[in-house]
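Appendix C. Worked example: Sodium/solute symporter
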Amino acid sequence: MTAGFSTLDYIVFVLYAIIILSLGLWVSRTKKGVEKTSQEYFLADKSLTWWAVGASLIAANISAEHFIGTSGSGFAIGLAISAYEWMAAVALIIVAKFFLPVFIDKGIYTMPQFLNQRFNRGVSTAFAVFWLLVYVFVNLTSVSYLGALAMESIMGVPLQYGIIGLLLFSAIYSIYGGLEAVAWTDVVQVVFMVGGGLLTTYLALDAVGAGEGIFAGLSNLYDRAREHFTMVIPEGRIYVPDGTGGQKDAFIDLPGIAVIAGAMWATNLGYWGFNQYIIQKGLAAKSINEAKRGLLFAGYLKILMPIIVVIPGIAAYVLLNAHTPEELAVILGKSVGEIGTIAKSDQAYPWLLKNFVPSGIRGLAFAALAAAIVSSLASMVNSTATIFTMDIYNPYFKPNATSRQLVRVGRIVAIVSLAIAAIVAPQLSSLDQVFQYIQEYTGYIYPGVVAVFGMGLFWRQITANAALWTAIATIPAGIIFKVISPEMPFLLRMGYVFIILCVIASVISFAETGVKIKSPLPPESRQRKIAGFSYVFFVLGIITLLAGIVYTPEYSYYGIEALYFLAALFLMIGIILYTNAKMPLSDPKAIVSDPVLFNTGTPFNIGAAGIVLIIGLIYYFLWF
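Step 2, the predicted output written as structure tokens:
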């Protein structure tokens, strides 16, 4: 299924490549004889404005797994896959208000560095290794594979050459210039990404509308693929390809209300709050307020993303199923062989670009896809280098390393990680929906990430041993659940793992009284206020738990057991708040943050309320 670009397409695409490389290398330049400092290379010298933070966050996040993978899931499942985008918008509000201010206040470079400050080097190293493995063997490989799949489908470039080409393209400026080059090129990449993506969606809807406009296209899309506009999927409702020629229940990937009340929150809070290549953009902001505003801006861009990356997949489904191959051949003026078909869900977006986007505009649309791929690869490479250099090389191999040595090691690590990704990426070709592969395998670490980082940020009781054993138990617990119940949806499995990890962390923390010290409690008035909030969360937790126990037998097909995760989360927040207010003992390295850090002004609050309202309305109208 290939169709070469026209000359105009190549001109547009080459112009894009020249603009990005030129900008990246220009930003990367330094004065003659002056070496980049580690802060310049790894944190862009803390120079990013709010709009640069927001744009860079989205550029790092939106990649081939969205344009190709999420469109593929849109083709197979429908709009329900947008839960990852829309719940992320709400998660960004939480991260902006409560998580990021503490990280910036602590002046850290990496997430493992925070764990070292809060706990010890063992906990820090455990998570550094976790992230390195995920970045190299899951993120870099999947993004480069999906991007190369698009190049193979649209341009006829062999898969392996496409993988190598994309990795090299992202390496040229990211390895040389560091985060500053990555972040400022991301601002331009987002323009290509959003502009080209919206144009592709417009053309897809126009095609579905048979030339009567995008509103007719939307109407036809809804009428002809009504089952694809269900936001909450019950068991047994939708079946999708399993990648081996058979079918599987879409409930396995998106189990009912788990996308709203379940471990989707662990995925989003872990990804947006504690994931190095994402949060690193916020750490590089000029100030805490700039960082907060940048994350809010990113939240609104996330609301927009399903229009760009999911709707085209549904449009491809309608176009392919509403017409016979012969009818499509007449409509497009091509032979049936030239049009091709969609053998795998992840081929939906390339198929759409090839057949329904005209010459010239196809080059722009593919530039948008390339922008998403290259920006994400560049961010991942930079963060891989940052974590290895600052959390493994510096403390274990050369504690007195100069900035020059740190930057050099970072560049070497980046090259090695790209080489590994180039070798591993082709092995993903057997999968039908790579986006779900990414979610499932990163899901093995996110319950532990959220438990350890969340408690480390806000709970004075959690100890280093509790954090370490929670980290150690994370992956084995996920594997055990997978072995015991292989048919359990991974979002539900993540919820149960999170509950177990909360119990482990709590039991060890309360048992280790000998390592704790006496610390002053908050003023009496603040104690009462914090304790009052804790009672609210205790009540919410108990009510949610009882609802799960009562309704799970009858409504298990709606994933109602996801309420157990929510109950555990509420109860854990209640425990944290109550013990912080009432227990005079705390871990020696516990964080006591100034409440002023969490203040947000009226514009931020109004913006946050707008995000919640928009998403609430979407789910209200498209629940079934």
